[in-house]
Design goal:
It is a single chain. This protein has one domain: Alpha/Beta hydrolase fold, catalytic domain (Rossmann fold, 3-Layer(aba) Sandwich). Helix content is 35%, strand content 21%. The protein is globular. Helix 2 crosses helix 3. Strands 1-2-3-5-4-6-7-8-9-10 form a 10-stranded mixed sheet, with helices on both faces. It has 305 residues and is an alpha/beta fold. Helix 1 links the parallel strand 4 and strand 5.
Length: 305
């Protein structure tokens, strides 16, 4: 079942705001345009709004859709921790895409946790994807290896222990989400625009939204101390044309995540952006959009800039 409304900027409708029930969850999404589907998946602590610039650009000639993942913003937030395991989330995303674009392959663009989920979806359901674009999101098998054996990535990922703790909600929400605002670096060179802060605070203030996001870390045991279990299910090769875009100054997801990636992806192009950090979707919008366009046309090869 689908429900839609328009999101207005000024007098004109710009985006379509909707809800769809998929795999038993009511999921919120925002879309623009008509045509072949491009689905955008955000990470933590973001929501559909992370892709507003991409919706505007790709809505010109595609059906561009940005989903609020389960647990975030206006989508349903299951109480059961197991609902946030990657295996369950990919079923939600796949069911959503199947409903919104029946019997058609689609392009998937994803960042951070959205990218981790996109890797898993590409492994489980390669036949539904036309193209895959990953932006600063580790492949599950590579990341598990680094968490087990790479001291630098272990140190960079130490914040995940906090996110899995019982105190996490209180710490992240204190002083009007001061912790998360620092993480997003609003108004700073490698962060988000200052004017976006109010929209993020509104999304974080939704009931149980912070817990929903944190449950991705808790359910999937993404910490150095638990990585030994290894996500063997996600070690199979990805057989989808894949572009990986990587901001090389990401303090949390280090460039080592690119090492050995070709072992897991049969058709891979990697584009490194030397002056970009984790929030490159916001700080390098033009470059990101151009790379997605080139990927859709089949014209991206390994490169650095």
């Amino acid at each position: 079942m689908m429900q839609t409304n328009d999101i207005h900027i000024g007098a004109q409708p710009v985006f379509e705001d909707g809800y769809m029930t998929a795999s038993g969850l009511r999921l919120h999404y925002v879309s623009a345009g008509r045509g072949d589907l491009i689905l955008f998946l955000h990470g933590f602590p973001e929501f559909w709004y992370a892709w507003k610039n991409q919706l505007e650009e790709f809505g010109k000639d595609h059906r561009a859709v940005a989903l609020d993942l389960p647990g975030f913003n206006l989508s349903d937030k299951p109480k059961e921790l197991s609902a946030y395991e990657v295996g369950h989330i990919i079923e939600n995303v796949w069911a959503f895409a199947r409903e919104i674009s029946p019997n058609k392959k689609f392009a998937l663009v994803a960042h951070d946790w959205g990218g981790y989920i996109a890797w898993a979806l590409a492994i489980a359901y390669p036949d539904v994807l036309r193209r895959l674009v990953i932006i600063n999101a580790p492949h599950p098998a590579v990341f598990a290896r680094l968490l087990r054996s790479d001291p630098m990535q272990q140190k960079a990922s130490s914040y995940m222990e906090l996110f899995c703790s019982a105190q996490a909600e209180q710490i992240l929400s204190a002083n009007d989400f001061e912790f998360l605002s620092r993480v997003m670096a609003f108004g700073r060179q490698n962060g988000l625009p200052a004017e976006d802060k109010s929209e993020y605070v509104k999304a974080w203030s939704q009931p149980s939204a912070i817990t929903g996001g944190l449950n991705y870390y808790r359910a999937n045991r993404l910490t150095a101390s638990s990585a030994g279990d290894g996500p063997s299910r996600w070690s199979a090769k990805v057989d989808v044309p894949t572009l990986v875009i990587w901001g090389m100054n990401d303090p949390a997801l280090l460039p080592q995540n690119l090492d050995g990636l070709e072992e897991y992806v049969t058709r891979l192009a990697v584009h490194r952006i030397s002056d970009a950090s984790h929030w490159l979707v916001h700080t390098h919008t033009k470059a990101i959009n151009q790379l997605i366009v080139s990927n859709l046309a089949g014209g991206v090869s390994n490169a650095s800039e």
